[in-house]
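Entry 12.
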Amino acid sequence: MEKRDVVIIGGGPAGRTIVHMLHASGRNMSVTVIKDEEINVNRCAVPFGINGKKPIEKYQISNTLVTDFGAELVIDRVQHIDTKKKQLRTEKGKDYEYRHLVLSTGSRPLIPPIPGIDAEAIIPVRSSIDLSALRRLSAKGKKAVVVGGGYIGIEVAVALRQMGIAVTIVEMLPEILMTTTEPEFIKHVENQLSKNDLQVLTNEKVVEFDHTSDDGVNVKLGNGNSLYTDFVVLSAGVILNTELAEDAGIKTSRFGICVNDHMQTSADNVYSCGDCAEKYSFVTEKPTRGEFGTNAVFMAKIVAQNILGNKKKFPGVINANVTSIYDLSLGSAGLTEQMAKDAGIDVVTGSSEVLDKYPMMGEVDSIHTKLVFNRKDYKLIGGSVMRKGNCTAQNVDFISFAIQMGATMDDLMSYQYCTHPELAAKPSDNSYVFATRDALSRL
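Predicted 3D structure (tokens):
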């Protein structure tokens, strides 16, 4: 039986963040990370690695990010956890006793129970193995079907289309990007995809994959139609890896492994963070989904602090997110208008469209902003931005921070900002101020 101060199950961003923080503390704690992938890939970057312009190694996460920071790395799978004895056993027969245990077991691709789905030409978007398969199939394929119209699905579809492949996106919901994006922005995205000859089928469900004699796939839809394709990319969501916790008697819900605001589970000295952990919305204080790498890092920081004895609470997720689609980028933070209404919040919204430079500068584009306020206290609870270029992430970060700090309409109307002919709107035309002013006019 090997004894450790900390055992971390999972080698994703949450696990690595904890390793780095414990190492920086100078406590000389004995730390072991157990993960079942020989080498992890940067999952968010997989769509951008399909074209093969860079070696796959560029998209992989080096194991030295664990081993160079004082932790032991074990490539294995945990088989059983005894939370009363504070012990665990791996599939390879290694036994560990821990003082603190962290479950950062992540998630895995949702593979719908569709007939014919278990085929080499049908690939999820998750691992280094998936990336290799997508490279191989796209190098020889002429047609592709992407199942799922969320961020990853759209990014994969665009990447394949840019390689000259004919692509059809099949989304079962009424619109693509519905879980993150305001309806006003979705229309712009759909126009962008259409302009690039990328077909989108919404309100449509795949019911069967029929494999042809030439190694192709007939994708059969619920309406009776079929799409012939060379390969299929699955991007229909993820399943949270909670089975290990459940087997150990640790409380879980449909949102993940249950944790308190210190990220502690129902078992003594066992923490959870990342995709597998239950998350609470910063705005509604109710359980929510939010499988973003940033959330994993934010939660992991709280875990590390509590392991070190610093009683820190996690305030909940704001789910700041962003994506790029051709030369367009868009993102959101907090709640969309519909999410807020679904949560029973009486809201008022405001929108703006301002130029991203002084109008006389040339190559000027618009910044579209929508803000969502709680009508009760005028606090900002959500916001979205869409614009050309790569500045949207900074815009979404501002909205996220404003939500976190409890900013009100009055705060946004009076906040001080910069201006420059080439870098920002003219002094009078701030996008957040204009959107807030529009919301005030609706009160």
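Annotation: The domain at 321-440 is CATH 3.30.390.30 (Enolase-like; domain 1). The mean pLDDT is 96.
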